[in-house]
Description:
Structural class: mainly alpha
Helix content: 55-70%
Shape: globular
Amino acid sequence: MDAVTLPTSEFLLSDVRAALQRGVTDPERPELSKAFAGWLLGNTEREGELASLVSAAAEREGALQGFQTVAILGFGAAAGILGVEQIAAFKQGLRRQVGREVVIDEVPAAFCSDAVGILGIVLGTKAVGDTELTAQVVKWISRFLKKSCDSERTAEWQRCLFFAADLQLGGSLNLLLPKSRAVADVRTALFAKGIVEPCDAAQMDDDRQVTLTLAVRELPGNLGCERAALRLAAIQSVIETTSPVLAPKSNARPLKQASLSPRDARVHNAVGEERFRTLRNAEILKESDVKKVLQAEHLRPGSDAAKCCLDRIRQTKGYLLSSEIRKKRSKQQ
Length: 333
């Protein structure tokens, strides 16, 4: 695996993190932004704030149970902190939302472009695991999500969140994850949370490197609170998976040995080392037990996402790639 060069002094990076922390803790932030940061960053202070927000949101009823209130409960569900009554409130809120019109007087409703709110609702829906309600949410979101993602007014970082939301509900809209280096930190943050998977280890390493470059080249004060939370989460992820010495490139230490994400680990365990060593991806994807596992992980067996998942496992574990297995077989014939 390529080394990740930590591009500047530890003191400068510490200053960047402190500035991002100030943006994330701005008391003037909307409640939904606070809930998003609480779920994303997941430290004790943030979790306490999220619990308080969730408690207040669950008490709201009727017209007060709006889109952002439901999204706050969704982040709480994704963080695993909802009680029985709060889950009931979240489900009630979801049923209200899926009955809403997405276009009013030929103009998309404001919530259609709320990437953070949509992600909260989707993550909560998946966490609760109500099959009937999930189907209703998928049907409702499918009416507007692709248009919102493709809109010229949608920022690249928001498209990343829309992609993650679609992926969490099965990827039926086939949205594309933006590849711009300008949102490498967003991809890194979402990968660290396990809701987006990189296609290969090389891209993951490159995104981590670019994340640090962006951190020291772009003023934190120019980022909104949600974007600052994503940048901070990405930096923390890079630091946690990289040797702690920041130095010039010639003295850089490599990343620790890569580990599989929780989902990739489950797929790896289901497929098994023997099949990875002897079968190509196309052959593995035909196995009935593997198909069941992939479907449970919201990966269609013949999709690019499923193939990328297998390739990531091969690269991380050091198994031969499918093309290498094919060449090995040809030589043996």
